[in-house]
Amino acid sequence: MININFVPDDYVQSHESRRTNLMYLVLLMIVMMALGSSFMIIKIRQRTCDAKEMVINARLNKIQENIQQFEDLQIKRKAMMKTALTTTELLEPVPRSVVLASLTNSLPPGVSLLKLHVIQNETPSSQVATSKYEAAQAKRAAAQPKPPQEQFIETQIDIGGVAPSDLQVASYIERLTNSRLLDSVTLVESKEHKTEDGTFRQFKLAAKLRKNIHLSKKDIDEIRIKVKDTAWGT
Fold first, then answer.
1. CA 24 to CA 13: how far, in whole Å?
2. Which of 110-124, 162-176, 200-214 shows the lowest mean pLDDT across its residues?
3. Do the beta carbons of residue 127 and residue 135 sit within 8 Å?
4. CB 135 within 8 A of CB 181
5. Are the C-beta atoms of 88 and 153 separated by less than 8 Å?
6. Closest CA to 213 of 42, 127, 115, 95
7. HEC states along the chain?
8. pLDDT confidence bin for 126, thresholds 50/70/90
9. Which CATH superfamily is domain 94-124+151-232 in?
10. Highest mean pLDDT among 87-101, 110-124, 218-232
């Protein structure tokens, strides 16, 4: 039996063409949805990265602020140290009148003071190397960067006077060495001078005021009372 198709060929081709176009349209929609989803994912990731970047920038800014505050504190600390040193120099831990009174109280019989010179200098807090081992360590440390050293006030005292003999000069040095105020008392010079009345020794001494020394009002009053008694011969 012969199968006869009564559907026109144009209709068949048009139907297949519509079905193909519909398939392409569906595929296009799928591709567009995939592209849209990819775009949305990229945007979400970009926003997440932006948020993380903002957090990191905020932390960096905080760290920079902390560093700046630390540097400001270091500058203020140096300024305060300088002010403290200046104040210490102006106030003086021991008044010069008390130093002179102590030197006068320690005079042996027949010894007189002719000159007194007090000098205050700023010295670094670190100690000078006194051994080969310390010198080697200091040499190795010199190659490394070091922070600025803090400065402290050192009081140098130059003493000049006359004495009947070297025995009185040695006694004076011993008394000054045992004094509460002085340290590192050394003989700089001792010369003999002759006059019509006899001979005498003109001497020069060098000493340093003890570090971190603080006298109470009672101690200062005792020193001043003693020098007054000495002056009046009591």
1. 16
2. 110-124
3. no
4. no
5. yes
6. 95
7. CCCCCCCCHHHHHHHHHHHHHHHHHHHHHHHHHHHHHHHHHHHHHHHHHHHHHHHHHHHHHHHHHHHHHHHHHHHHHHHHHHHHHHHHHHHCCCCHHHHHHHHHHCCCCCCEEEEEEEEEEEEECCCCCCCHHHHHHHHHHHCCCCCCCCEEEEEEEEEEEEECCHHHHHHHHHHHHCCCCEEEEEEEEEEEEEECCEEEEEEEEEEEECCCCCCCHHHHHHHHHHHHHHHHCC
8. very low
9. Ribosomal protein S6/Translation elongation factor EF1B (3.30.70.60)
10. 110-124
| In the block, residue with structure tokens 């932006």 | 50
> Residue 81, Cβ neighbours under 10 Å: how many?
14
Q: Angle 144-147-148 (CA atoms, 0-180°, nearest 5)?
A: 125
Is the backbone of residue 150 left (phi > 0), alpha (psi -120 to 50) or beta? beta
Q: Which residues pair with 163 in a beta bridge?
A: 201
Q: Which residue type does 197 have?
A: D
What pTM does this model have? 0.47
Closest by Cα among 108, 97, 103 to 179: 103
Tokens describing residue 75:
């500058």
What's the CA gap between 207 and 194, in Å, rounded? 27
